[in-house]
Amino acid sequence: MPETFVHKFDTPVFKGTVEIPTGIFIDGKFIDGADGNYIDVVNPTNGKVITRVSEGTPKDVDRAVEAAQRAFDTVWGHNMPGYERGKLLYRLAELIEKYQDEFSAVEALDNGKTFAWAKKSDITMAIGTFRYYAGWADKLHGNTIETSKDKIVYTINEPLGVVGQIIPWNFPLMMVSWKLGPALAAGNTVILKPSEFTPLTALFAAKLTVEAGFPPGVVNVINGYGSTVGSAIAHHMHIEKVAFTGSTLIGRKVLEASAKTNLKDTSLELGGKSPNIIFDDCDIEQALDWAIHGIFWNHGQTCCAGSRIFVHAKIYDEFLARFTERTKQVKVGDPFSPETYQGPQVSQQQYDRVMEFISSGKEQGATVHLGGERWGKEGYFIQPTIFTDVHRDMRIVQEEIFGPVGVVIRFDDDDDVVHQANDSIYGLAASIFTKNIDRALRTSQRLKAGTAWINCANQLHPQVPFGGYKQSGIGRELGEHALEHYTAVKSVHINLGHKP
Predict the structure, then answer these.
(1) Facing residues of 410 across strands?
(2) MF terms per GO, please (predicted)?
C-alpha cells in the first residue's frame, strides 16, 4: 500500500494539516507502482526531501489505459450525459475551493512559489477553469447542413476516447485544470502525468475526484519521469490523443512519437521568449509595474515571461534607472512570508540551468546591470537579474532561460522593434505599452505571437485561448478552442428515399 504524506503547516499565512496519498492513481484507487520504486519530492527552499511518491512505469501506463478504456466504454463518454459530467466538474471546482489554502500551501512547499501568488493566481485559475468547462459539458453541439431535398445531414462532436496528458512543474494545479477541464467536459477519459518535481497537488486533486463522484477509471494520475511514463504515454497505441506542456525540445519528441505510432492527435504548448515593447508615449509607471510582473512573476518560470524588454531610446535611460530601483525592491525569500514576491527555482537542475545562462551572458559580453548571483546560502534562490548591452546572437537573447533574468534592449523606431521582436523561433506572447491605440493595434497585428497584451502582461483567463505561433506549439489551451482538441467531428447522412 502506498504511503500517505501528512504535513502540518505552521506559517504566517496558513496553519493546518494536509494529507495526500503518494501512490499512483489508477481506476479510482491509489496503488504502488509496478516496480515498487519511489521518487523523492524536494523542498526547493532548502534542498531537503519532503516526502516520496510512487514511481510509475510503462506497465502502469498500460494498466491505466485499460481502466480508462473500460470507463469510457461503460460509464463515461456517450454513457453519461453532458450535464452530468458538468455537475461532477463543478463539484470538483467546489472541493478545490474548499481546500484552496491547503492547495496553496502544498504548491509553496514543493514548487517554491509564494503562498500568496499560488492562492491568488494558480488556485483561483484552476477553480475557474473547472467551472468554465463544467458549463461547456452539455453544449458541444453539432450542426445541420443543407445538401438536397432528399437528405438530412448533421454533425456530432464526439469524444476521442482515452487521452494522455503531460504537464510541467511551473503551475502544477493550474495545468491539471487546463488539461482535465476540456478533456473531461468533452467526454474523454484521462491518463495524466504530473512533473516528478511537483506531483503533490495533482495527487491531491485525484483524491478529490473520488469525493466529487467521478467513476473509477475516468481520471488516472501516474507519477514518473518523462523518459519512462511520459514516453509510454506518447507512444501508446491505445491512447487517441496526447496533450503536452513543456519545453520545445521535448515537444518535438512527443510529436515524433505520434508520427511513429498511431498518429494520435497532438497538442503542444511549448516555450517562449516573449518581447515586452515599451514605447516612448507609454505611461512609464504602468509599464514599470507590468515589466516587473512580466519577468519576475513565478520566479521567471513562465513560458510567456516578458524576458526581452525593448525600450524606446527616448525613455531608455529613465526607464532603466527606475526599472533597476523597482527590481531591487523585489522581495526574495520564504514562500510563506506575506512580503515575498520571488521564491526559489523549482530544483537544483533548474537553478544550475539558469546560472549557466547567466554565465553565458557574461562570457558573450553582456553587462550584468543588476543581480546575476545566488541569493542566500541554501535552496535554489537566484537574484533578480537584468542584462544590458546585449546583441541578437547572444543565448540570453535567443533562448528561453525560464528564470528571473531579463534583457533590456534599446530601439529607435516601430519597424525596428517589430523586426527584433519577431526575430525568434518562438511566438507565444508579447506585451505592448503605449497610450496610442493605433500604435498598439498596429503593432499587435504585426507581432508573430499567439497572445498580445496591451498595457499589461501575463494575463490569463479560462475563457480566453492561449497558445503560440512557430516553435511555441500547436493548438490552443483554454476557451472554446481547447475543446476542439478533445473532440472528433462525425458527419451523419440520412437518406429520405433518394435512390443511387
Answers:
(1) 311
(2) aldehyde dehydrogenase (NAD+) activity
Q: Is residue 56 very low, low, confident or very high in pLDDT (cuts 50, 70, 90)? A: very high
pTM of the model: 0.97
User: What is the rounded (10 degree) CA torsion for 239, 243, 244, 249?
Assistant: 70
d(CA 255, CA 233): 12
Q: How far apart are the first and last CA of the chain?
A: 63
Reply yes or no on whether 158 is catalytic.
Answer: no
Instruction: Give the single-character DSSP code of 292.
Output: H
Residue identified by cell 535552496 is 379
Question: Is 483:136 a contact under the CB 8 Å cutoff?
Answer: yes
Cα–Cα distance measured from residue 208 to residue 99, given in angstroms and rounded to the nearest whole number:
10
For 161, residues 6+ apart whose C-beta sits below 8 A from its C-beta are 69, 72, 77, 188, 189, 240, 241
Q: Which CATH class is domain 275-461?
A: alpha beta
| Range list for CATH 3.40.605.10 in the chain | 4-270+474-489
- Among 213, 260, 258, 293, residue whose Cα is nearest residue 455: 293
- Residue 419, C-alpha cell as written in the block: 523586426
The one catalytic residue in 196, 269, 400, 477 is 269
**Of the candidates 333, 329, 355, 93, which has an alpha carbon nearest to the alpha carbon of residue 208?**
93
State which amino acid sits at residue 153: V
**3-state SS string over 218-277?**
CEEECCCCHHHHHHHHHHCCCCCEEEEECCHHHHHHHHHHHHHCCCCEEEEECCCCCEEE
Pick the CATH number of 4-270+474-489 from 3.40.605.10, 3.30.70.20, 3.40.50.300, 3.90.1150.10: 3.40.605.10
Residue 346 CA to residue 348 CA, distance in Å, equals: 7
